Amino acid sequence: MDQIEATLLVIDDEEPVRSTIVAYLEDSGYNVIEASNGEEGLKMFFEHQPDLILCDLRMPRMDGLVVLERVIAHTTEVPFIVVSGAGVMNDVVGALKLGASDYLFKPVNDLAVLEHSVKRNLERSLLVKQNKIYREDLEKTNRELTIHLDRLQLDMQAGRVVQQQLLPPKQLSVPPLKFEHFMVPSMYLSGDFVDYFALCSDKFFFYIVDVSGHGASSAMVTILIKSIINRFIEKQLQLNQFDIDLPSLVQTLNEELLKSNTGKHATVFVATLDSSINQLNYINAAHFPQPILFNKGEVSMIPTQGLAIGLFENTQYIQKSVEISDDFELTLFSDGLLDVIKDKTLSEKEDYLLEKIGKEHNTISELAKELQLEQVKDAPDDITLLQVRKG
Fold first, then answer.
1. Residues 6+ apart with CB under 8 A from 102
2. CA–CA separation, 86 and 92 (whole Å)
3. Quick one: CA dihedral 250, 255, 260, 265, positive or negative?
4. Were 328 and a residue from 117, 174, 355, 390 both cysteine, which residue would form a disulfide, CB within 3.0 to 4.6 Å?
5. Residue 326, exposed/middle/buried by CB under 10 A (0-12, 13-18, 19+)?
6. Could you give the percent of the chain with pLDDT greater than 70?
């Protein structure tokens, strides 16, 4: 380590010894002040705030131990090197117990040993001071981080409230159909969203969306998607077009999400249901886990037919249709559900869900209870379930 710029205080009642030490340390590049007794030394300590003290132990009027006690009472950050005669080892031990940082024996014939002790203690003192500054800065940063986290938590809570207010009622019964959703919010703002509503007396529209990532940006994208869907449907309804053009709708979502430059993409399952002809029309744009369809006494998964929205331009989406029966039931999930189905492979988790829907024919509320979703705390991702059933 390079020479440390420092002010040293030398306290010794023997003028020849003191002068020799002062001259040597000054030649070594230090700024040195001196005192001929303990009282004068204490006064100079408080006036000049030196970086290190070199003090004789045996002095008249006020010995070095008293000086050490007074200095330690004021600060423990200034190294205090005691100088003692070889025959008074007990004084050295007492000084070290009080807090002296080093000791030397008189006569100090090898002044290089003195300089080495001074340099070593100054380096140690500098590291202590730097560590203290580091700790103070770290504590300040932690306090500021805590404040920011508290504010972020409030922002997330406000964002969550906005999201919840935009959700449809948890249950909607419009004979012959019933809609129901269940959601376990994650510890973060997330990108899950569902909606369902009647287009007219016998036509209905519903969807589930899962935006990539977490945080306010993902939550805002869900609001953007809801807004785009609502505008698209309102235009069609104004023209008395109750058969929603699902491919055009999903393509519009894809284009608008790309234009938003949010860097987000989303999976979406969007569908219409015509109860007058018992027909379900849908597009599954990479939504996962695959929705489970119970229809005509059989249970199956609806595979994806297109890419997620917000990834590529000019993506084509194909609408599929299926005739529904009186025992029709469609259950949709967000991928957060897979995290709470423990000790199973992905394939086993899918088979488990197929079994639950197919054999037990649970409602969403019953399925949530069966999966113990109400007991889930601090989920890393939203867990969302949506069910549409007939009867």
1. 79, 81, 82, 117, 120, 121
2. 9
3. positive
4. 390
5. exposed
6. 91
* Domains of the chain and CATH, by start: 7-134 (3.40.50.2300), 167-390 (3.60.40.10)
Q: Is the pLDDT of residue 332 over 90?
A: yes
Place of tokens 């376990």: 184
pLDDT on residue 359: 66
Do residues 9 and 50 touch, judged by C-beta distance below 8 A?
A: yes
- Cis amide linkage into residue 289, ω under 30° from 0: yes
Amino acid code (one letter) for 317: Y
The residues, ordered by sequence, that sit 6+ positions from 38 with a Cβ below 8 Å of its Cβ are 11, 55, 59, 61, 62, 63, 64, 66, 67
Residue 381 · residue 335 · CB < 8 Å: yes
pLDDT > 80? residue 379: no
How far does CA 274 lie from the centroid of its chain? 45
Q: Say how far residue 174 (Cα) sits from the centre of its chain.
A: 43
Position 330 scores a pLDDT of 94
Question: What mean pLDDT is predicted for residues 60-82?
Answer: 91
The span from the CA of 293 to the CA of 330, in Å, is 5
Is the entire prediction scored with pTM above 0.85? Answer: no
Alpha helices in the chain (DSSP H): 15-27, 38-48, 64-74, 89-98, 111-166, 216-238, 246-259, 336-340, 346-355, 364-370
pLDDT at 46 over 90: yes
Q: How many whole angstroms from its chain centre is CA 43?
A: 52
**How many of the other CB atoms lie within 10 Å of CB of 17?**
16
Q: How far is CA 39 from CA 18, 21, 32, in A?
A: 16, 20, 18
228, pLDDT greater than 90? yes
